[in-house]
């Protein structure tokens, strides 16, 4: 995801007077700027940095949705909308089959040891930000059986 695209979409939401969408995109822009400042790059924000910030915000929004009480339908609707908007900007994640294929081809020597910790350590460096960590853990656990 390109940072300029994110900013243009925020301006478009402002012009369309779509307050809820603008607030969600604005929070994404703020998260990206904060991460960029933390890493010492205020200018020329890299796409990889934007993707990391978006994924972090998506994870937070999903946790809010999961922890929301059932009787609070107003909050559930708000959190669902937030997750849906953030998902539009999140990078495409690898599927379970794609993860399994990458692990078995690139990390065959690590899989042969059946040491889950060692496998996860080597695989996460390669797949971080490209696939969901829970899904990677699940696939590695199946391969270690």
Condensed summary:
The protein is mainly alpha-helical. The chain is built from eight helices and no strands.
Explain what the structure shows.
The chain has 145 residues and is an all-alpha fold. It contains eight helices and no strands. It has helices at 3-15, 19-38, 47-67, 73-89, 96-106, 108-113, 116-127, 133-144. Helix 1 packs antiparallel against helix 2 (19-38) and helix 5 (96-106) crosses helix 8. The longest helix has 21 residues, at 47-67. 18% of the residues are buried. The mean pLDDT is 87.
The ordered string of helix (H) and strand (E) elements is HHHHHHHH
Give me the count of strands.
0
Characterize the largest beta sheet: strand count, sense, and whether it forms a barrel.
Answer: none
Shape: globular
Stretches where pLDDT falls below 50 for ≥5 residues? Answer: none
Structural class: mainly alpha
Q: Which value, in Å, is the CA radius of gyration?
A: 18 Å
Q: What percentage of the residues does DSSP assign to strands (E)?
A: under 5%
- Count of DSSP H/I helices: 8
Give the end-to-end Cα distance, rounded to a whole number of Å.
Answer: 37 Å
The helical percent reads over 70%
The whole-number mean of residue pLDDT values reads 87
């Amino acid at each position: 995801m390109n940072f300029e695209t994110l900013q243009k979409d925020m301006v478009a939401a402002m012009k369309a007077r779509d307050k809820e969408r603008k607030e969600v995109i604005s929070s994404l822009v703020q998260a990206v700027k904060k991460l960029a400042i933390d890493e010492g790059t205020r200018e020329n924000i890299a796409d990889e940095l934007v993707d990391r910030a978006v994924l972090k915000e998506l994870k937070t929004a999903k946790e809010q949705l999961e922890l929301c009480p059932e009787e609070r339908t107003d909050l559930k609707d708000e959190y669902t909308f937030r997750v849906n908007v953030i998902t539009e900007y999140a990078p495409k994640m690898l599927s379970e089959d794609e993860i399994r294929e990458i692990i078995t081809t690139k990390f065959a020597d690590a899989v042969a040891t059946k040491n889950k910790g060692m496998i996860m350590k080597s695989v996460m460096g390669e797949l971080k930000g490209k696939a969901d960590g829970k899904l990677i853990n699940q696939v590695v656990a199946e391969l270690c059986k």
